[in-house]
Write a structure and sequence with these properties.
Number of helices: 39
Radius of gyration: 31 Å
Oligomer: single chain
Largest sheet: 2 strands, parallel
Number of strands: 2
Structural class: mainly alpha
Distance between the termini: 40 Å
């Protein structure tokens, strides 16, 4: 039978699934069918299971995955499901029987066997999303009822197919044992010292089988966001808890090794090789990464309802700081997914995820080095493709988001991996790639989720001291030179300069898309975490840091939103850390602080009346411009409410850098984490005490209300008008203004500024270099107060980040599935979820 005849015969079989009518007397043998398909007509559209030739045609006629997906149209699947559910049940049962027969073979499979199993895999991949989307109990009746549940059986069978000799593994040389299911790791690396010989055919078989496994895990996308933390994905649970140990370890190591051994360049760095040779390896590696992330992220709802146990920030030879130094990913009391709780080792009973448990067991340094090397190889690909003499000669693969997600999950599940990664110089390559990709994507509305992940990762990296110390090394232009070109004003310097300037670029982008979500808080938190260890900043970096402060300290900007003032706290903490711990090498910053002294005095003397008047003036100017342009605005007297302030409700004074409104930008709740409070005043000079805010009581400063500065009143109630819009009040302003950590900087300026001014006048100095030389030759011993303890705000992912990560991850999987384009990849990997009713996120189709 030719290809055209096969397609017509397959299409005819699809029509018969819901068109052929037989007497409803067959209901007596299968009464549950009426429960599965309530729309059955008096004549049950059911084809007998004994029609072997009819059912056999489904897995013998198609030749490619593209044929199955094109000939099984969405409307046909839904009609069979809703009108002739019995036929759909029979089809799935026949497919599972065929897979079971294949797995029980005692001889090597033939080509016909492989073709039939591939078609079974393709049909299941096509049908399952439409079963998952059904709001009826079709899925429950079919897969999760009865004594012998079909769902766990299907999950185990799919994993076994990934390790079947002659299908996804090469045939064995021993005719007695070289066949059947054998859990052999696909590539060398973690858990394996050699790689079995693999053909292109076996890679395509693994690719299609992994697509089915990912489809089973994708049941999550049909769960509404509001029910995500309370509704269990039974399919994911069956896979991460229902496999035998050997299968779990083999699948984990195979997915991981395949991902980290992938070389995006290939073919001995032959230019334009991706245009000459067809390669399906990228799609295979992408599926490995996505499946591994989905497996590591799977968890039961009970984990999300556990009480919170935040990790208190570390300090140097000081008692632990209260919980205000810990960053939470949500305002709820959900516990972080941290397998290192308790005695420092993963706990299997608490995880309820065998893959995360065994990933947390990795401990060999050579394994960690292999993983980091593989990550860096893929993450450097965009930098290498952008830094070639021949444009387009190196293919840019689109795997960076998946690699960073896997990096995140491994750090979550394995503290040893996190510690080892921070001690190697490869973490700097990861940093360069994160910042390069973030700066590149900052103006793309479709990359908001990616920017959010990058900001979270920067926060995670910054909480490790080893990482912060490594930032003092010189920037490696030879390895990641293209990253430097993406950051304006950076030419040479240290990794710290690169980080600070990249964050400045991300915070001050003036061409941000209207749908972007400000992420200042985690970015500034990262700078605050690393600042005590940064030995030197260049003149350019110091000036940019001061310009960032100037923009955030604008009176109108601080009052425009309930949480905008928190940005000032973070920047002031950066200044305090640099001045108190690394003042010797940061004379350019000292000089910049002196030059900007009026900005700090202005913030210290700022009153609510002045700030509110400036806010109203800016809004009036904006409303006037909108009226002149013919654009109506509902109101210009209120600011966005706290619940909706992630839209662009910012207010930026003329002449300052345009900054988006900063609210719980990253779903990281820093409601008790707003920078350093005013320490006890013992040991301060009278001059230092005089620089404290006037309305701070000299005996109780820094001690009221648990040293907490959030964006609300002391009693925790927000200020809103009758329409729910935030309105700044005198009490709210006085509360956080009283806690501004300005005392160290004002003490420094009151001592240093007059000295420098007198020096310039007496010696007629008009050269900045001579001022810097003078600062280098002096000392500030006895001028500054006793240094405050070094505390680190730790990233703790709670329910908010959990929900966001799941939604964004599956959104990426959905988009990547639709972006295969044309050619061999599109034929091998047609879109799986396109056209289904997804509930986890919203899909908008633009014409």
């Amino acid at each position: 039978m030719g290809a055209t005849e096969s397609k017509l015969a397959f299409r005819k079989n699809v029509f018969q699934l819901y068109e052929q009518q037989v007497p409803s007397s067959l209901l007596s043998s299968r009464p549950f069918l009426t429960e599965i398909s309530p729309n059955l007509c008096p004549f049950l559209q059911n084809i007998p299971p004994t029609s072997q030739e009819f059912w056999h045609n489904f897995y013998t006629l198609p030749d490619t995955a593209e044929d199955v997906f094109n000939l099984f149209a969405p409307k046909d699947i839904r009609r069979v499901r809703d009108v002739a559910g019995g036929n759909l049940v029979t089809l799935i049962e026949k497919i599972l029987d065929r897979i079971s027969t294949f797995l029980s073979l005692t001889t090597p499979p033939t080509k016909d066997d492989a073709k039939e199993i591939l078609n079974c895999i393709r049909i299941l991949t096509r049908l399952l999303p439409y079963i998952f989307e059904a709001e009826s109990d079709f899925e429950d009746k079919l897969f999760w009822s009865g004594d012998d549940l079909l769902a766990p059986k299907l999950c185990r069978a799919v994993v076994q197919l990934l390790f079947f000799r002659g299908f996804t593994l090469p045939e064995g040389t021993d005719p007695q044992t070289g066949h059947g299911v054998q859990y052999i790791i696909w590539e060398q690396g973690v858990g394996a010292s050699v790689s079995p010989a693999t053909t292109r055919t076996e890679i395509t078989h693994r690719t299609e089988t992994l697509r089915l496994l990912l489809t089973l895990l994708s049941r999550t996308i049909y769960i509404p966001t509001a029910k995500l933390t309370t509704t269990q994905s039974r399919w994911s649970n069956a896979i991460v808890t229902g496999l035998e140990k050997k299968a779990t370890l083999s699948l984990l190591c195979s997915l991981l090794n395949t991902s980290v051994n992938y070389d995006p360049v290939g073919w001995g760095m032959l230019p334009y090789n991706h245009l000459i040779f067809a390669n399906v390896q990228e799609q295979f590696v992408m599926l490995c990464l996505q499946t591994l992330v989905a497996l590591l992220d799977a968890r039961s709802p009970i984990q999300d309802s556990a009480p919170s146990t935040p990790d208190v920030g570390s300090s140097r030879n000081t008692p632990a700081e209260p919980d205000r130094r810990t960053s939470f990913a949500s305002g709820s009391s959900a516990a972080a997914f941290n397998p290192a709780s308790g005695d420092g080792g993963p706990k299997r009973d608490a995880l309820r995820n065998d893959f995360a448990f065994y990933a947390g067991k990795l401990h060999r340094p050579q394994d960690f080095l292999l993983i980091m090397t593989g990550f860096c190889r893929i993450l450097k690909n965009p930098l290498e493709s952008a830094n070639t003499y021949l444009p387009g000669s190196t293919k840019r693969v689109n795997l960076q988001a998946e690699v960073l997600m896997l990096f995140w999950k491994l750090m979550e599940s394995n503290p040893k991996f996190q510690h080892q990664a921070m001690e190697t110089d490869k973490i700097l390559i990861v940093l360069a790639s994160i910042l390069y990709l973030a700066v590149e994507a900052r103006n793309d509305p479709s990359q908001v989720g990616f920017l959010r992940m990058c900001s979270f990762l920067l926060h995670m990296l910054s909480q490790d001291r080893n990482f912060s110390v490594q930032l003092n090394g010189p920037f490696d232009h030879a390895a990641v030179g293209a990253a430097a070109k993406a950051v304006p004003n950076f030419t040479t310097g240290t990794w710290a300069d690169f980080l600070f300037l990249a964050v400045h670029t991300l915070c001050t982008s003036t061409t941000r898309p209207p749908t972007s979500i400000p992420l200042h808080e985690p970015l500034l938190t990262a700078l605050a975490n690393v600042s005590p260890y940064v030995k030197t900043l260049s003149v350019t970096t110091a000036n940019k840091l001061l310009s960032l402060y100037s923009a955030f300290a604008s009176p109108a900007f601080m009052l425009a939103n309930e949480y905008n003032h928190k940005n000032v706290f973070y920047v002031l903490e950066v200044f305090n850390n640099l001045v108190q711990y690394q003042v010797t090498g940061n004379t350019p910053l000292l000089y910049a602080l002196v030059r900007y002294k009026q900005k700090f005095y202005a913030l210290h003397d700022l009153t609510f009346e002045h700030a509110n008047a400036e806010l109203q003036r800016i809004r009036a100017l904006r409303a006037q411009k909108l009226q002149q342009a013919g654009i109506s605005t509902p109101s210009t007297t209120t600011t966005p409410t706290a619940a909706t302030s992630n839209t662009n409700g910012d207010t930026t004074p003329p002449g300052e850098t345009s900054l988006p409104t900063s609210r719980r930008e990253s779903e990281v709740d820093h409601s008790e984490d707003v920078g350093e409070v005013i320490p006890p005043q013992e040991g301060l000079s009278e001059k230092g005490k005089g620089k404290l805010p006037a309305h701070v009581d000299s005996e109780e400063g820094g001690k009221n209300d648990g040293d907490r500065v959030d964006g609300a009143k002391a009693d925790g109630k927000a200020m809103v008008d009758e329409r729910g819009k935030f309105v700044p009040t005198q009490e709210w302003f006085a509360y956080w203004h009283a806690h501004l950590p300005l005392h160290t900087l004002l003490t420094l300026l009151s001592s240093l500024a007059p000295t420098i001014e007198q020096l310039c006048v007496e010696q007629g100095i008009n050269d900045d270099r001579k001022v810097l030389e003078y600062l280098n030759s002096g000392t500030l011993v006895g001028v500054l107060p006793v240094p405050h303890p070094i505390f680190v705000r730790r990233f703790v992912g709670g329910v908010g980040v959990r929900v966001w990560f799941v939604g964004w991850f599956w959104g990426c999987v959905y988009m990547k599935s639709n972006a295969m384009g044309a050619g061999e990849a599109a034929k091998l990997c047609p879109p799986i979820w396109t056209g289904t009713h997804i509930r986890l996120f919203t899909v908008r189709i633009h014409p």
